[in-house]
Amino acid sequence: MTESEQGPPILRMEGVSKRYGGVRALENANLAVSAGRIHAILGENGAGKSTLIKILAGVVAPDEGRIALDDREVAFGAPADASRAGIVCIFQELSLVPDLSVADNIAIVNPPTRFGMIDRRAQRRVAEAALARAGAEDVHPMALVKDLPLSRRQMVEIAKALARAPRILILDEATSALTAADVAKVFVVLKRLRDEGLALLYISHRMHEIAELADECTVFRNGSNVATYPAGTKSDAEVVELMIGRELSAVFPPKPRQRTASATPLLDVRRLSWTNRLRDVSFHVETGEVVGLGGLDGQGQRELLLALFGVLRGVTGEVRVAGRAVAPASPHAAKSTAIGMALIPEDRKTEGLMLPMSVGANLSFAALDRVSRAGVLDRDREGKLVRQMMDLLAIRAGSIDIPVGALSGGNQQKVVIAKWLMAEPRIILLNDPTRGIDVATKQEIYQLLRKLADAGAAILFYTTDYSELIGCCDRALVIYDGAIRRVLVGEEITERALVASALNIDSDTGVVAGGAS
Amino acid sequence: MSDWRYALAQNRATLISVAFFVAMFAIYASNHPAGFSANVVETAANKGVLLALVAMAQTFVVITAGIDLSVGSVFVLSNCLASAIVVGSAGHAALGVLGVIATGAACGAVNGLIVIVGRLQPIVTTIATGAIFYGLALLLRPTPGGDVYEPLADALTGRVFTVVPASLVALAAVALAVWIPYSRSALGRAAYAVGSSEAAAFMSGLPVASAKASAYVLSGLTASLAGLFLTFVTYSGEASAQTGGSYTLYSIAAVVLGGVSLYGGSGSAIGAIFGALMFRTIGDLLFVFNLDPLWQPLFQGVVLLVAVSLGAARLFRVRNRLELFS
Amino acid sequence: MTTQARSRRGGALSSRLDRPVVVAFACIVALLLLGSLYSRSFLSPDYLLQQLKVASFLGVIATGALIVILLGQIDLSVPWLVAVGGMMATAATAWGPIGAWLAIPFGVACGVALGLVNGFGVAYLRIPSMIVTLAVNAVAQGLMVVHTGGFSPQDSSSPAMRALATGSLAFGLPNAVIVWIGIGACAVFVLNRTTFGRSVYGIGNRERAAYLSGVDTQRIVLLAFALAGGLSAFGGVLLAGYASKAAQGMGDAYLLPAIASVVLGGASIMGGRGSYLGTVAGVVLITLLQSILSVVQMPDAGRQVIYGAVIIGMLLLYGREGAAR
């Protein structure tokens, strides 16, 4: 919280707007960034943060408005232009080249050359210096990026940005892949950079990170900046209020009364382990139950779902479905009626849907067996079931024949879910299904999950949104470093309990009391 | 110490292909009825260098995650062109050599232009341009014939210091003059980056278009050097569809045997050169063991099939099957 | 983009709206009109039927190429699988009367077997299709060289093969065309009306999503390559019937035209998009182009240049959407 005197802004955005087709991503947005400050940008998904960054980084051009650097108007045609002007961005999607070495990547834009060839020794020195500056001395400059774990890659990404000697450094969810220890390290680095006079734009969903790091904050909502304030002057609740522009009162369907455990739960997992990512995970999910997976992102939750769904190889432990031991070796096997499992995957664009294919073809793709006889499609039956699903989930599509890629994000996500419901699964695994979709669709999904559970499904629901764990789940398993850290039941599922156990900081104090929210 | 390990790991594919070639060639030479003589090496070298150059040409494009199915046609076109213009006086022949190289580079530039500006897929583009280049070759040489400046041809296909085949020296010179500077330049680095991840390369502000363009131009250029060399070996030009087609296909095989990834971003032309020499030696091995030459194509095919299947061993290390689909 | 969307409903009929298919058919008409300026006979039924007959060989082979390309893969083993089909069928003929009966199925079965090797390499060993089919092509070549002892075989085609390729039923409709129509109808049905076809499109669009949807992607890929192998070999059987005998290089001239027909018909080489009707248009277009160039006595050199330029030109005409997905 350095409340030091603030110089004139070095970067100023005024009245910037950007539309994609009919959708406005930014509307008359303003922002001023000063040297020697860490400026946090907050906002819900779709508030315009990523468009803002893309404009600053020269990836897209704004439709209107002006950007001034040191009071001189600038226009970036490509990322290289922005980089030359001293604006360097660390993107959420990594910009590292997997087949090149760490040193190659760090020096990729302006490698030191001798006689037209890259001077490897000089490059190595540059890389080592940058890695040291980023606090990642443990990364070998000659290692190939593709051989590094995700958290190391993220550190290399930061080193790469620093090697370009930026004046303005933009970090977009740069800590999402990092372990807690790395986050602490990165924060030390970022604070040092600030003290060296850099301007830092920091985008994160993690409130506690912003509280610890930022000097000032700007909240975006619906493509415009709605408030700028010194960090620490608003409570979390007030900030959340600004972000969503209304009372935080997502409507969750009522939960049923607690039930008693049955002798043979529908899904019973015992001592499930996989490499070093899953360690002796044991839990069960009853018929009619919604069990949440919580914890910090990237603690093994995704791997757990993939392991159950037969995607991972070398999984040990025991999985029982309705009392029978099963070991699916592929999604095909996991889907079979004997197991009846479904996985709503993480990334709908690459894992859930075939974007150029029609809504109808996508919807029936996981249930082709149900709409065919001896391998021949029964179109009437297919059309009927597809329409049923579209009604059930209120999927808004002009026709079942338009490509699914033409639908809105929320409707696309509903198609992913509907496609799996069409296969009539009894165990439904969901991998962060509400990420990046609008609030209204989220609410519909909450209602649907409860309805499915009531109809007899067992639901295992991984979400990065704590409020969903609190609002939707009968029980929540908090995962930390590949193991179940804590099981919270019913009223025990509170934000405080979730956060504490996710950070692995609640000692043996037992149940965290109270209804903090 | 640890640096060595990383350097070794990064060049593993190339080193393996070198080792395989050396082993094969040792078997070949030690069992050759005429023994390990300069003659044996010279004949083998002249055959191997042709494919090595075409494989090198293929490597440039494959590095960028593209494919050039027109290398064989450029090779044949250059052969026909050389048989027409690399003739006469020394000065005239020298100009002719430049003309052939420029033509090859121009062919590559056409490919690059269509792929980059026209945004057509490399595989389809080069199939079509391959037909065009072959047509031009036929136009130049409807029937086999022509001539070549003999002093140059003899010098490059003979021996240096009475033992070293001149063709190998020429190959090494091309690798040193074309491949090494390119692969170590910022542009060559960008070509690797584009092949490994075009999105990341763009995000990093690399010159994606010029990186690709340079790869196609150099591919055409190197293929024309191969065509030139073919003229020196045969003293004539022939627009043979069969030659063009087989060299295109063999160049892909050589590139893969040399450890260059068809998915782009990794491998080196040095590996591809040894892959090509290896591929040639496979065929010759049968000859020294007195097997019926009829079995040679089958043997070559089976070795190729087994060699590419060995790469599947990596599948056993994959713990997350989703990695197979990225 | 929406080929698949349309083909869901009306099959081949409604995909006629697809732009590349329209362009390809327009080019066919334009070529015929252009040819008719040169000679009246270009519009005569005899000429057209003859062209269709010649086109049917390419059409059968291109059917296999389409299936593989829809998967986002490529089959470079076409040349020698065609030769295997022709040569094994004629070899069977030489065994005697039973062999003559079995000639056609035997030739096709050999193609299927080699196609299975392709499919196994691509689906289970995950070798890039370009390289595994190249290797299988080399193996097939090797097998045939050993089989024939280095010479073109003297074995000639069975009567059934000849009848299939050269004979004609009533109304002068060549049998080869009828065979192509039959295979085409099956292909349209399989691609549009079966779970296999739907899976092929799905895998071609996004293999990862298809796998996660619980489709047995490996089995589908294996099957698709086996089918393509069988179709290449069947093309070879027909060609051997047409020429009365099989020869080693008989398939060499079919790899590039097969791929070109599929792509000219609007299919994306990256997979997931394309229709059979488009491939039919591509096949007819290429056959007509070759025929007209030879009728006007264009030398082979000019033919090659025009051939390549037309492919590039048309693909550029289809626009960027058709190129980069």
From TrEMBL, chain A:
GO MF, one term, reads: ATP binding
Which CDD domains does the entry mention? ABC_Carb_Monos_I (cd03216), ABC_Carb_Monos_II (cd03215)
Membrane-spanning segments: none
Which InterPro entries does UniProt cross-reference here?
AAA+_ATPase (IPR003593), ABC_carbohydrate_import_ATPase (IPR050107), ABC_transporter-like_ATP-bd (IPR003439), ABC_transporter-like_CS (IPR017871), P-loop_NTPase (IPR027417)
Entry coiled-coil feature ranges: none
Q: Which UniProt keywords apply?
A: ATP-binding, Nucleotide-binding, Repeat, Sugar transport, Transport
Quote the Pfam families the UniProt record gives. Answer: ABC_tran
The ABC transporter domain covers which part of the protein?
Answer: 11-247, 258-506
Q: What's the family?
A: Belongs to the ABC transporter superfamily.
The protein's name: Monosaccharide ABC transporter ATP-binding protein (CUT2 family)
Automatic annotation (TrEMBL), chain B:
Q: GO cellular-component terms in the record?
A: plasma membrane
Determine the domain of life of the protein's source.
Bacteria
CDD domains in the record, alphabetically? TM_PBP1_transp_AraH_like
How is it placed in the membrane, per its record? Answer: Multi-pass membrane protein
The name on file for this protein is Monosaccharide ABC transporter membrane protein (CUT2 family)
What are the record keywords, sorted?
Cell membrane, Membrane, Transmembrane, Transmembrane helix
One GO MF term: transmembrane transporter activity
Main subcellular localization, coarse class?
membrane
* Residue stretches spanning the membrane: 12-29, 49-67, 123-140, 160-179, 215-235, 247-278, 298-316
User: Which InterPro entries does the protein's record reference?
Assistant: ABC_transp_permease
Record's Pfam families?
Answer: BPD_transp_2
PANTHER family given in the database record: ABC TRANSPORTER PERMEASE PROTEIN YPHD-RELATED-RELATED, RIBOSE IMPORT PERMEASE PROTEIN RBSC
UniProtKB/TrEMBL annotation, chain C:
Output a single Gene Ontology CC term carried by this record.
Answer: plasma membrane
Membrane topology qualifier: Multi-pass membrane protein
Q: Does the keyword Glycoprotein apply?
A: no
- Does the record bear RNA-binding in its keywords? no
Q: Name one GO molecular function term.
A: transmembrane transporter activity
Highest taxon in the source lineage: Bacteria
The residue ranges crossing the membrane are: 21-39, 51-71, 78-98, 104-125, 132-151, 171-191, 220-242, 254-271, 276-295, 301-319
Where's it found, cell-wise?
A: Cell membrane
Keywords assigned by UniProt, alphabetized: Cell membrane, Membrane, Transmembrane, Transmembrane helix
Write down what this protein is called.
Monosaccharide ABC transporter membrane protein (CUT2 family)
Organism (species):
Roseiarcus fermentans
